[in-house]
Specification:
- Strands 1-4-2-3 form a 4-stranded parallel beta sheet, covered by helices on one side.
- It has one domain.
- By secondary structure, it is of the alpha/beta class.
- The chain is globular, with a radius of gyration of 13 Å.
- 39% of the residues lie in helices and 15% in strands.
- InterPro entries: YeaO-like.
- This is DUF488 domain-containing protein.
- Pfam families: DUF488-N3i.
């Protein structure tokens, strides 16, 4: 099973990143596909647009954001994408880096995903 870490996509690529997976619904501004060096873009595993806009990285809303996001991940395309992400991690012996575009480096969807995936 892989080691899971997260990183802002605007940080420089490193060979230590292993398989790089973008877990944002929107493509990050100013990043070319070549520069991103992605293994996968699982946009369906990201929070819905409605949830993302509601949260707006207001740290006072993080706990409720986390609950709503986990609920979203239990159904439909988001569940399928989460299942795909789990399979990638199970089948990888190195590192998997979850990439995000948000300026908030701690309280974002990768924090929630990492917590879920480590269970």
């Amino acid at each position: 099973m892989a080691i899971i870490k997260s990183k802002r996509i605007y940080e420089a690529y490193s060979s230590d990143d292993g398989i790089r997976i973008l877990v944002d619904r929107l493509w990050p501004r100013g990043i070319s596909k070549e520069k991103a060096k992605l293994g996968f873009w699982l946009k369906e595993v990201a929070p819905s647009n409605e949830l993302r806009k509601w949260y707006n990285h207001d740290l006072n809303k993080f706990e409720e954001f986390k609950e709503r996001y986990i609920s979203e991940l239990k159904v439909g395309l988001q569940y399928e994408a989460l299942t795909e992400l789990k399979q990638i991690i199970i089948n990888t012996s190195g590192t998997v880096t979850l990439l995000y575009g948000a300026k908030e480096e701690t309280f974002n969807q990768t924090f929630v995903l990492m917590e879920l995936l480590k269970k």
